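Problem 12. The chain below contains 230 residues. Write out its predicted structure in token notation.
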Amino acid sequence: MLTLYSYPALFGVADNNGYGLKVFAFLRLAGVPFRHEHIFDASKAPRGQLPYIVDGNDTVGDSETILGFVTQKYRLTIDAGLSPAQRTTNLLITRMLDDLYWVMSYSRWKDERFWPAFRAALLREHPNLTEEGLAKAQAFNHQRYYYQGIGRFDGDAAMARGVADLGTLAALIPQHGYLHGDKPTSIDAGIYGFIANIYFYDIDTPLKQFVAAQENIVRHCRAIHEAVSL
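Solution.
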């Protein structure tokens, strides 16, 4: 059976990282049986990044590569009805979510307004973690943010960038149904992966404030959450 390796749960979602939760939701929506293993150590993962899957003799990393691999291997039809224009929209949204990822991560590990509450939540929900280990992870993330660029923004400017991304999603998500119709497709899993990690996040960041005020985004998030939760 396929095994998904991803970061542990937090605040009631199956993975506290948008990419892992995206793969989790996709597998659930597509009806692919799988085991879910929660890990913190990504050293054995392809490219040293989570999530990744092991399926028989195949080990596959990168969330988009995973979705493509699983779709082909299991002949999934979740996206079969999409038009070329819809597939183009999906790619644009996926790339925008990559941008949103950095702001979300910054809000947890770097922004001093929210880092203490995030650290406390990790220690509370995952007692195997230590203050020393989290301090090392924080230092590593600060270095990543600097070289990626988001780390050179102050907190308000970084959050404004994320709110702009979320505003685009608010303009695209319909009041009813899913992005491309009455049934969810892979892009809905991708959107859920990130939005759920904002909406269910029990810390009142500007990102959460914006999401909570958008009825269409909240409805979409809750619909996918109900569909993929056991």
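Discussion. The chain has two domains: 2-73, 84-228. Students who got a different answer should revisit the alignment rule from Section 12.3.
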